[in-house]
Amino acid sequence: MVDCASMKVNIEDYIKAALKEDITSEDITTNAIVSPLKQGCAQLICKQTGVVAGLDIFQYTFGLLDPKSRFDTEYKDGDFIQSGTLVGTVYGNVRALLTGERTALNFLQRMSGIASYTYQCVQVMKPYKTKLLDTRKTTPNMRIFEKYAVKVGGGNNHRYNLSDGILIKDNHIGAAGGIAEAVRLAKEYAPFVRKIEVEAETLAMVAEALEAGADIIMLDNMDNETLKKAVELIGGKAQTECSGNVTKERLKELCEIGVDFISCGALTHSAPILDFSMKNLKNIN
Known about the structure:
Layout: H1 4-22, H2 28-33, E1 39-46, E2 50-51, H3 55-65, E3 70-73, E4 80-81, E5 86-93, H4 94-125, E6 131-133, H5 143-152, E7 166-168, H6 170-176, H7 179-189, E8 196-200, H8 203-212, E9 216-220, H9 224-234, E10 239-243, H10 251-257, E11 261-263, H11 266-269, E12 276-283
Parallel strand pairs: 6-11, 7-8, 8-9, 9-10, 10-11
Antiparallel strand pairs: 1-5, 1-12, 2-4, 3-5
């Protein structure tokens, strides 16, 4: 699970890398026309209605360029913001404001887009017991931000990375020579406190995973009829996770089948950004 505390420990290197991508030596445009001592402020304006996520990251980006910068806002991550809202004002060295603008907005827009799409999905699932999970289908070097945004939107994190949990997928099964052997080896290797999840694509694989003692069975790319039969076959003897080709439009029918979890890669790989802009920059001195 990703939370705000763990983000603060890990984010600096990622934000620095994003800034380095945008500044190989200098911001030549800004440095040509702005005095290095000039102080100013600019407004952050939300241009679409949705759930905001990444305000601390927005602020932190400018802080790396100007430690004396500040961001004044009455909003917090998770707030639902209407289009046209003045979210806050960022103050600092004008060179830092102009140089960091795009990187700070990229983080904020991406994270808020994921939080907003997740929120929409969660609203569909509210009447049901089924929980919404993200996946590892994240943008390289953006996982910590994207999974945090899923949490802000009301979703839940699946395993954060390969060290975080045992998930035996089709190629693992092939490498081990079968589900039973893969589960046996996993139980032999892993601490007893670790749950073991097995991906199953057919009812026969579901039966084999049950027999092998899987704790969670991922029902992968099954049609609705097969999903219903799989849930009945499992009968509560293992937790169930539905995965593969999950869209917002399918969530209601999948919840009605009665799976425990739905994992949705679209939360992070297909969510559109939520549009923000920095406007009305003014010099203070």
